[in-house]
Amino acid sequence: MNTFAIRRGRGLQGRMVRWHLLVLCAMTALLVVVQTWQFYREARGRIGERAITISRLVAQLPLVYQGAQAGRQNPALNAQVNALRDEAEADFIVVGNARGIRLAHPVASSLGQPMVGGDNEAPLSGREIISVARGSLGLSVRGKVPIWAGGRAGSRVVGVVSTGYLMPQAWHLVAQALVSLLPWFLLALGLGTAGAVWAARRLRAEILNLEPEEIAALAQQQRAVLAALREGVIAVDGAGQVTLASERASELLGPVHPPAPLATVWPELAAVTAAGLPARQQNLELTLRGQPVLVNLEPLESEGPGVSGGFVSGFRDRAEALALADELTHARGFVDVLRAQTHEYQNRLHVLSGLLQLGRSEEALRVLNAEIHADTQFRQLLRDVQVPRLVALLAGKRERAQELGIEFQVAEGSCLSALWERHADTLVTAVGNLTENAFEALAGQPGEVTVLIGEDPEGMQVEVEDSGPGVPPELTQTLFAQGVSSKGEGRGYGLAGVCARVQALGGQLRHTRRSGRTVFQLSLPTPGPQRSGA
């Protein structure tokens, strides 16, 4: 079920279509306004040209210029002009004398009245004009020309001819033009809507059918996850550019400002991934600023054939990983020891309980004394080992060996001074790992495991000897490398961790075959004086 309650019609596709329609309608309205204004200007210009042409023709009629020169009413003049008006389909043709008094007019009651509109000055001065003015019949486009005496241009002006078309005719022409464009507007609207739907679907497919709210939530979750991780995480695209870096990555790599070339940020990783990353890689050992790190690489899907999709890299300090592995090893070892002790003591208690129930108290006492003697003898062997945690580990391993049917011994004369308490963690890790490996080497068969601990002025030594078959020859040279093990996948980290910790203290870890037994030898140099507060 979708986590986000996005209402029907409020998704990305619906919003894109609505936004597109809104923009398209706004652009269409603006275009209509612009086109209307242009059509109005064109219609007014065409009507004006038509009006002034008619006025010129009327002004050349003998009856017109003779009547204007006489300056008196003439029914014949008015009748002829009105007849011409009907033929020209004009709204009015008005003839006035030199004083602007109407000599011809479509309305008989207006004859003899002054012409209205205030635009006679130019024609009475001998100039032709096209004007828009409001007369007695309403707002109109007028074409006005002067009437010359004798019909000869350039002579004396004796009157004016005004032909006009009322403005509704201009708007009628505009409406006709807009109606002719309406199908194209509707076609553009339909194509725009279809294009918006197609673009929205393509966009949703490109963003994995996620809504903007989902993308924003995922981005916030991604930032929170990266901030919570203690591993460094970087994302690299197919062009080798670092496009994302977590805070921890910036701490390990230095300031990273995406996009940044991987070859500059981390040259070694760039060289490893230069040929592409066909499959996932885990626990790859690289160096970063001189420090060993463990790197996991996860390839990303490519954008097309032959095009690299980049990868995501998670990396952590190798020392931190080994420290965590050691802690897990300790915990697992302690759990095994406690389980073995519980198991063995339960068995002993069951034996004692059974003997007592059978009335064999003397035999029960002998069993109890034998156990006490064995424990006392084992503790006597460890009396000179003055590192309590190491003693506790060996005691636990003895119980573990008894559970597995293995004879576990601490060599007589083992000793270790309290000076080595400061390296107790390393000793517990090393001895615990070596003894557990010795138990596993016996593969459930009866055998012997012996631990020898000693020290001299140059340092301390630990030997763990077992009667198992030994290290396979093919692993002899790489036994202490990480991931190398004869026990299958997912193993091979314990010895590598122990070796790293021992070498960090200046010691050595070796293995050999002696008298048919496998011997692992650990040596550490004598630690220097401990600094105050260390």
Question: What is the strand and helix layout of this fold?
Answer:
Blueprint: H1 12-59, H2 62-70, H3 75-88, E1 92-97, E2 102-104, H4 121-124, E3 129-135, E4 138-148, E5 157-166, H5 167-206, H6 212-228, E6 232-236, E7 241-245, H7 247-253, E8 260-261, H8 262-265, H9 267-272, E9 281-288, E10 291-299, E11 311-317, H10 318-357, H11 361-381, H12 388-404, E12 407-410, H13 424-441, E13 448-456, E14 459-466, H14 494-504, E15 508-514, E16 517-525
Parallel strand pairs: 12-13
Antiparallel strand pairs: 1-2, 1-5, 3-4, 4-5, 6-7, 6-11, 7-8, 9-10, 10-11, 13-14, 14-16, 15-16
Helix pairs in contact: 1-5, 10-11, 10-12, 10-13, 10-14, 12-13, 13-14
GO molecular function: ATP binding
Subcellular location: Cell membrane
Pfam family, one: sCache_3_2
